[in-house]
Design brief:
With about 325 residues, the protein is an alpha/beta fold. It folds into two domains: about 170 residues, Rossmann fold, CATH 3.40.50; about 140 residues, Rossmann fold (3-Layer(aba) Sandwich). The chain is built from eleven helices and 14 strands. A seven-stranded mixed β-sheet has the order 10-9-8-11-12-13-14, sandwiched between helices. The two termini are about 25 Å apart. The model has no long low-confidence stretch (mean pLDDT about 95).
Length: about 325
């Protein structure tokens, strides 16, 4: 069969624009499906294409509304399984609940594992995700997981800017390995911020390891949620004499007071990818630039479809 006949890509409501861009890169039309509701609000999905024996990919970011988008993904997977698809891959650019990956206190759930079980039991044969927040979440699945990184897209953008006197700053100790890779890719020095968590939405940058005086700063993380960590770190490096400050993140969640905090922080540019559609409020914020991960997903989907190595993508991209 030709690629367009055997490969099918279906889009959920979570990020239809990204799914459309991936289909455009691949040169195939989006899979035909209708997402409707019963009178009581329950969703029903009807796949209109013949998927028997096809290699099917369902693209759905489980961003806000998180629970609704997650349930929609599960329904999609079940629908394709019952329609006799040959292989079903859940493409989850943003994987909700990934931050709840361990029991850090008594009587709390590990929802990352719960969601992994739900996706597997719903009918997925494999998962393709971007920056799961914690790499160990891959081990929560009993099916193959291809884990991509927005670092490929973000580092290329900052490298093309040719930032002089560059220092890559890790906004917290846990992000040190990622910051080190950015420093290697961009050819800059490395500095680390030590923070203290005050609450679930607020963190205070206490100390800086490294010299940033007179340096331009790139600070990257996998996610900007409430922006407490990144804004506190930006203020600290500015106090220590930093010049321009650039912020990069794969997932722009921008929850709670994030946008207000970012506007007040000494940040010159904020760069995120399109794993999550920007909220209307975020779209009005002129300092946020959005990079697309569509070409990276396109290449990964082609390699999965052809049973080729996806790990080589990190060197070939």
């Amino acid at each position: 069969m030709f690629l367009k006949d055997y490969l099918k890509i279906f889009s959920g409501s979570g990020n239809a624009e990204l799914a459309g861009a991936v289909c455009k890169y691949l040169g195939i039309p989006p899979g035909g499906a209708k997402i409707e509701r019963f009178a009581d609000g329950e969703k029903v999905i009807r796949v209109e294409d013949d998927v028997r024996g096809r290699d099917c990919f369902v693209m759905q970011s489980t961003c806000r509304p998180v629970d609704e988008n997650l349930v929609e993904l599960l329904i999609y997977l079940d629908c394709l399984r019952r329609a006799s698809a040959s292989r079903i891959t859940a493409v989850v650019p943003y994987f909700g609940y990934a931050r709840q990956d361990r029991k850090d206190e008594g009587r709390v759930p590990i929802t990352a594992k719960l969601v992994a079980n739900l996706i597997t039991n719903a009918g997925a044969d494999r998962v393709l995700a971007i920056d799961l927040h914690a790499a160990q979440v891959q081990g929560f699945f009993d099916i193959p997981v291809d884990h991509l990184s927005g670092e490929l897209v973000l580092s290329k953008y900052f490298r093309d800017k040719k930032i002089s006197n560059l220092t890559v700053v890790s906004p917290d100790v846990g992000n040190m390995k990622i910051a080190s890779r950015y420093a290697d890719r961009l050819g800059g020095e490395l500095a680390i911020v030590n923070k203290k968590r005050v609450s679930g939405s607020e963190a205070i940058a206490q100390e800086l390891i490294g010299d940033v005086k007179g340096r331009n700063i790139v600070m990257c993380d996998d996610i900007i949620a409430t922006a407490g960590t990144i804004c506190s770190a930006a203020r600290l490096v500015k106090e220590r004499g930093a010049e321009d400050i650039y912020i990069g993140a794969t997932h722009g969640v921008f929850a709670g007071q994030a946008l207000e905090r970012l506007k007040k922080a000494p940040i010159d540019e904020i760069v995120v990818t399109d794993t999550i559609p920007l909220t209307p409020a975020a779209q009005k914020c002129g300092d946020i630039k959005v990079l697309t991960v569509s070409s990276m997903l396109d290449e990964a989907i082609k390699r999965i479809h052809r049973n080729e190595s996806v790990s080589n993508l990190f060197t070939d991209y």
